[in-house]
Design a protein that fits this description.
three-stranded antiparallel β-sheet, alpha/beta, 17 helices, about 525 residues
Length: about 525
């Protein structure tokens, strides 16, 4: 049977130190439950002494029905000159009630002498006393050797004595940290080998990504005997982030054959990645390995033709392995293979004339500034129109947007929309925070009676790009709108010299796609 590698998640602590990342208490509890369901071994909840939210987390997490993961509290070694039992940090770790406590201590001589300004004897005592105190309290203790690789490079003997001190005091594992993220895989390999020669307890790895090597360094450490990999979901964290546990889990399981997560957990990695992005209110990274929306996207006609015959020709694994899906992109670079692949659900591939017509239409529109790579819903509607499968759900008769301000008053925006819906005229007015919001609100208001399912749809992103900037304020703009309901996310595009008209075109496509989509799915 293949060896099991432990996955230790620190999204809620180390990940939250990333710029723009802020989890509420409820966010942290939701992520904890999801990590447990997928099968992570350890979930580091935070530093109980750092803020009231983390302290409350350790109280509330006890009520979660976790079935696999162990919750871990994190803290530092005791302060210099203070007994462990009297140190408020040690007390906070003890009182957190977690079965596992992780302590971070100094490994680098530079940090000991120049930052803490203590001697080696006191640093070793701080490590031993802190580990021994929590061990005596009945806790499993993980020791994070901060700046280990930098410290080992500068003074190997000093660094090795610190991890030996943690082992001697009762630590269950020593986790070697590339805290500055600056080491290369060969540095990691040599240091892990050296540590394993002097320790009898297991070794783990904790890498930051400042050189884009956190995953490579983590895998190298495992190859040299590490049994635990620490990191964060999507690699979020301070500076350039941490090792991405999504990629780590996929590489360990799929590429190297190790056991990680629960059975079936690897197939949920895409879902987990996007769940954490949503909770953190962050945009997906389309090019993220394994789970990004572009990870298995194909644009060049030759590539698409080859993938249609043999997916492995341009894919390193089947996307379903990690819960992702293949994506065929459509653009002016597309060949007939792209169009055939994208229109498969309409069963139109036998109509060569139609395929050519759709391809020509795409190329003509992209020449005008449209882009369908990031607006697949608009492409879906284009195909329906070219294939004669499109019946408009409503007809625009008129719209007007009024923006006005006077003196120091806040700007007021009002939109009027007049539509023909099922042979009935709907003429409505709505206010909004801006012209697009006012138009969106008026459009929904006009359609609410005929299409009540639009209440489940909302706009989640709005992007504007100037196409021909040399034209100045008369330039065309491309508006891409991302919408979602309780079942799907989709994007639409509009292009015009008038930003309001471009927005209207994208909004209409978004609404019509929602209506067509729901009509085709039983139960909607």
């Amino acid at each position: 049977m293949s060896r099991r590698i432990e996955l230790y998640d620190t999204t809620l602590r180390d990940g939250s130190q990333g710029e723009g990342v802020n989890f509420s208490l409820q966010d942290k509890l939701l992520i904890t439950s999801r990590l447990d369901a997928v099968g992570f071994d350890y979930i580091e909840g935070g530093y109980p002494l750092s803020n009231p939210k983390d302290a409350e987390y350790f109280q509330r997490v006890r009520d979660l029905p976790l079935t696999r993961a162990q919750v871990v509290s994190f803290g530092m070694t005791r302060r210099r000159g203070v007994a462990a039992e009297d140190d408020i940090g040690m007390q906070a770790l003890r009182d957190s009630g977690t079965p596992v406590c992780t302590i971070v201590g100094k490994t680098s001589a530079v940090h000991v002498f120049e930052v803490l300004r203590i001697d080696e004897a006191e640093n070793l005592a701080m490590i031993r006393d802190s580990v021994a105190f929590l061990k005596a309290e009945g806790r499993t203790v993980f020791y994070d050797a901060e700046h280990f690789f930098d410290g080992y490079r500068a003074n190997p003997e000093f660094a090795l004595r610190t991890v030996q001190a943690a082992q001697d005091a009762g630590a269950s594992i020593v986790v070697l940290c590339d805290t500055n993220g600056g080491r290369l895989p060969e540095d990691v390999a040599a240091a892990v080998d050296a540590v394993r020669k002097v320790l009898t307890i297991p070794v783990g790895i904790h890498c930051h990504n400042d050189c884009e090597l956190a995953i490579a360094n983590s895998l190298t450490a495992v190859d040299h005997g590490a049994i635990q990999v620490q990191g964060t979901i999507n690699g979020i964290g301070e500076r350039c982030g941490n090792a991405d546990l999504i990629s780590a889990a996929a590489n360990l399981a799929v590429k190297k054959g190790y056991q990680v997560l629960r059975p079936g957990g690897v197939e949920k990695l895409t879902e987990l990645s996007r769940y954490v992005y949503e909770i953190a209110n962050m945009n997906f990274r389309s090019g993220q390995p394994f789970v990004g929306t572009s990870a298995f996207a194909h644009k060049g006609g030759m590539h698409v033709h080859a993938v249609a015959r043999l997916s492995a020709s341009y894919e390193h694994i089947p996307p379903e392995t990690v819960g992702n899906e293949r994506k065929i992109l459509v653009s002016e670079l597309s060949g007939r293979s792209n169009i055939i692949a994208k229109t498969d659900k309409f069963r139109l591939s036998h109509d060569n004339e139609l395929m050519t017509r759709i391809l020509n239409k795409v190329q003509d529109l992209e020449n005008e500034g449209y882009q369908f790579e990031a607006a697949e819903a608009s492409f879906d509607l284009l195909v329906r129109k070219e294939a004669g499968l499109y019946q408009p759900k409503f007809e625009r008769l008129h719209y007007r947007v009024n923006v006005e301000t006077e003196g120091d008053r806040e700007t007021e925006t009002e939109a009027t929309v007049k539509l023909r819906v099922n042979d009935k005229i709907e003429h409505v007015v709505a206010e909004g925070d801006g012209p697009v919001n006012a138009l969106d609100t008026a459009l929904r208001k006009a359609l609410a009676t005929a299409y009540p399912n639009l209440t489940t749809m909302n706009l989640v992103d709005y992007k504007v790009r100037v196409i021909n900037s040399t034209e100045g304020t008369a330039a065309k703009v491309r508006v891409v709108i991302e919408s979602r309901d309780d079942k799907a996310v989709w994007s639409t595009v509009g292009v015009s010299e008038n930003i309001i008209e471009a927005s209207w075109l994208a909004l209409v496509d978004s609404v019509e796609y929602k209506l067509f989509k729901d009509a085709e799915v039983p139960g909607n």
